[in-house]
Amino acid sequence: MIVRRLRLWAHGHTRERRYSPVGVAFHWTVAGLIVFQLWWGWRTGRLPVGAEKVEAYALHVQVGLLIFVVTLARMVWRMIIPGPVNDADKPGWQSQAAHLTHFAFYFALLGLPLSGWAMLSATAPQQPLSVAGLVPWPHMPFADLTPERRWAIEAWAEMAHFGFILLVLALIPMHVGATLKHEIVDRDDVLSGMLPGIHRLERSLARAPRRIAKSVRPPKASGGG
């Protein structure tokens, strides 16, 4: 019953070729977290060894686990509430490329926190973990392995982590470039379907000519006697 009501509510948005407000919130939340995480990871790697670097890494891990949880929640939402069918779904190579890019994004957004989680679980199982510093999070079960195996896991996870970073750095300009092409060259509805509040703005702009016409309408002539 709840799922059916959610679908009916979301259909009010998707039938107009827009994402639901929840889908929009997921998209921009993950986008903001990824941009922050890339910058913060770069900054943390350049800090000198010391307390500040340790605290910076702790925040990096907390945000990474938050991205992992939000990405899982977003995937569940997409399974329950499919996105709208818009101009990006037109048959052809561009549609196939868009779906492949989205798949690669999910692959990276899950792989990055998983590899980081594995790195920390293998090398610092005593360090407490949490999602955004609020919800406790367990370590992967590596504590009872031999030191050699744990260091092998850490080395593999570090290489995977670096590979996922490169993948994200390649996907972001591809995604932004494709979105700008849809908006500027193709003049279609891909970007507008994901911008928060754009529907209310379009409705307001559509009503504006009528409001202006009413305001400049000449007054009715009064009857003479």
Give a structural overview.
The chain is mainly alpha-helical. The protein has a single domain (2-85, 93-208), classed as Fumarate Reductase Cytochrome B subunit (Up-down Bundle). It has helices spanning 2-14, 21-45, 51-80, 93-123, 147-185, 198-216, and strands spanning 129-131, 135-137. The chain has a two-stranded antiparallel ribbon with strand order 1-2. Strand 1 and strand 2 form a beta hairpin. Helix 2 runs antiparallel to helix 3 (51-80) and helix 3 crosses helix 4. The longest helix has 39 residues, at 147-185.
Layout of helices and strands:
Elements: H1 2-14, H2 21-45, H3 51-80, H4 93-123, E1 129-131, E2 135-137, H5 147-185, H6 198-216
Query: How helix-rich are the residues, as a percent range?
Result: 55-70%
CATH topology description: Fumarate Reductase Cytochrome B subunit
Order of helices and strands: HHHHEEHH
Radius of gyration over C-alpha positions, nearest whole angstrom:
24 Å
Mean pLDDT reading: 83
